[in-house]
Amino acid sequence: MSNKYDANVHVSAAEASVRLADMRTADSDCPDLIVSVDAHMKISFANQAVADMAGLPVTSLAGLVVDQLATTLGVNVVTAMRDVHRTGQAVRIQSQVARAGVARWFDVWVVLREAEDVVCFARDVTEMKHTEELLRKSVGRDSLTGLMNHASFHEAVSKAVSSDAGQRGEVALVLFDLDYLKLMNDVHGHQTGDQALKEVASILTTSTREFDCIARLGGDEFGVLLVGSQRDDVIRVAWRAVTDVCATGLPGVGRLSISAGVAFMASTREPGDLFDRADAAVYDAKARGRGVVSVADMTEIAYASRKCDISEPVPSLPASELANARNVKTAARGALREWVHVLACSGGCLDLLDAQAENVNAISYFRFGHDDWKLAEQTYALIDYPSTAKALAQGRTYTCR
Fold this sequence. Notes:
Blueprint: E1 9-11, H1 13-19, E2 33-37, E3 43-46, H2 48-54, H3 70-73, H4 75-87, E4 90-99, E5 102-112, E6 118-124, H5 126-138, H6 150-162, H7 164-167, E7 171-178, H8 181-188, H9 190-207, E8 213-218, E9 221-227, H10 231-246, E10 249-250, E11 254-255, E12 258-264, H11 271-287, E13 293-295, E14 341-342, H12 348-351, E15 353-354, E16 359-360, E17 365-369, E18 372-375, H13 386-393
Parallel strand pairs: 12-13
Antiparallel strand pairs: 1-4, 2-3, 2-6, 4-5, 5-6, 7-9, 7-12, 8-9, 10-11, 14-17, 15-16, 17-18
Helix pairs in contact: 8-9, 9-10
């Protein structure tokens, strides 16, 4: 049993009296604890709720010294009743007591009434306290996965960079992108996408040390901060997470895929630089086919922000099984919600276009995001959309809304 004081809140006797029911007429079924003591600190009245809390018959309480109810009301409440009798100043406190091994919280008013009686009125606020605790724990946490959120993770990175470990260059950041999340949401629904995000969160948690910082940074992006780890160990952690995610399947969806970018502390010792280089490494991992780990060069900064010429070659497809999209359950229902520019390139891209049949097996494309052209995050199967396929086969820019 533990007792904790909140700061005493002094209130007028009149205000406190308004809050107190007349003890002599109080309903015996009232859930609030009501007890009064006389000038000798002996109980002159206690309602049924007090008796139930004490585990005693209500008729046996009158005449007991209030100290005998210390385990029922809380030691701080008994002390407050003595103080109020001495000073005449009403107070409000909170008390935590244990009953049957379960902690219960009470909001307590203690006031001096006529004939020098001191009255205690206690309301059970345990549920409210539990809610407050949940809210406190949720601050800085992602509501879906329970991991750190964007703000708290960035704060952790900043502290790590400025720490002794940061000065020694023993700070590493790994960013992970869950591949095809947008397509998954469009085809299978956001509940499926949420389940995929939870799976990734669980795998990242088991793939890292207990004291490593793990966060969902928003959308499909996750981050892991490792302090005091050797370079090879960091890369090993990243690969283990990627391998485990890529071995995880969801019913009706198939195996998941995740891409990782690793950045180590550079001479600039700036958190923004660390994020920029890790982000650049993620885009490099996606360009290499996804489901891999890419490590940023120590001098490479903000590669992801540079403009990409749309005539650059399209990288190979992320998986050999997508070479014939007819056999893959990746119908892009509503997925192409942005301007799509089809490259009239040679090689793999051209081979996927079937102009005669006005059909498309699969296509890689560039999209305009933020202020730059960037390599698209998905390779879509479009065989369910004849009109889209026709436009693509004829080499036209096509918009699907």
